[in-house]
Amino acid sequence: xxxxxxxxxxxxxxxxxxxxxxxxxxxxxxxxxxxxxxxxxxxxxxxxxxxxxxxxxxxxxxxxxxxxxxxxxxxxxxxxxxxxxxxxxxxxxxxxxxxxxxxxxxxxxxxxxxxxxxxxxxxxxxxxxxxxxxxxxxxxxxxxxxxxxxxxxxxxxx
Amino acid sequence: xxxxxxxxxxxxxxxxxxxxxxxxxxxxxxxxxxxxxxxxxxxxxxxxxxxxxxxxxxxxxxxxxxxxxxxxxxxxxxxxxxxxxxxxxxxxxxxxxxxxxxxxxxxxxxxxxxxxxxxxxxxxxxxxxxxxxxxxxxxxxxxxxxxxxxxxxxxxxx
DNA sequence: TACTATTCCTACTAAGTTGATAGGAGTTTT
DNA sequence: AAAACTCCTATCAACTTAGTAGGAATAGTA
Lengths: 158, 158
Hints:
Largest interface: A-B, 36 and 36 residues
Mean pLDDT of chain A: 89
Number of strands of chain A: 2
Strand order of the largest sheet of chain A: 1-2
Strand content of chain A: 5-15%
Shape of chain A: elongated
Structural class of chain A: mainly alpha
Oligomer: homodimer
CATH topology of chain A: Arc Repressor Mutant, subunit A
CATH architecture of chain A: Orthogonal Bundle
CATH superfamily of chain A: Winged helix-like DNA-binding domain superfamily/Winged helix DNA-binding domain
Number of domains of chain A: 1
Order of helices and strands of chain A: HHHEEHHHH
């Protein structure tokens, strides 16, 4: 299971990526109300994402957050790793957070193989799902104000 | 990450499945010393596995544990579900432990799709990896006493 | 019937993680 | 100087994890 914090992080990033003007800085308070995330908690999440080189931030009265790189270049893998850490199900098969499984001899480990397979399949999916993909999914489902395409889509629904 | 407890469970089951005589009941103390698992903790794990319909147990002085069904019919999925619960990374995409993700509208959820894919790929692997597969891997690596094949293999190594 | 060896059960505990909140310091615009 | 942000440290309650303690129930054996 990914943590609640990680879900918040993904939703916050989608919110930022969904901005019409990619250069507009988005305030944490905006995201908090729009995405229903506790404000103070969100601040710590955004800080983690900034430390993780996904977000750029500006302080002061016109401050806020922007993506450090295009949404299409931010992978789900990256986000999860920053917030939750390892993606693998065993420490000894983790690529980015390797640790030896105490009490088991790795050279004769019986279960390593399966979990390497799981890791590879999982990364195959998460690496190829960018923030842009998630955002597009989001925009399709929840039309934005002033978005002509989604407005027509909405009216044609009835 | 799967829990330490779950790794213990898998190793304990492999140990039981590796017995020459499939009808022999294996005592928890045997497993504990062979697999280096804290004895009392192991007892609670074996009880979980029995409640989960994987093991059969006998009390008394000749008591112990046996597999309730052939090792080839016990999947890794089953074991993990009993010990750790859900395999999916989101509550709302779990097949056996479904729960709604509080605070997100499932009909418009942006991230559900990816995690459904991850779940399916993961289950694809774990469902097709049986305890027999894991045991065979184990026996290949750690030759048993009195096993002629592995003794010759051992001596030819030098 | 004792005795012994095992599983089984309830309860407890220490340490770590998760999901936050509090209070204020630093920074930038007006 | 004031206002409005981000940023930082510390703290907290609830929960989970990894295990331990002590003994009851059960079954074979002398």
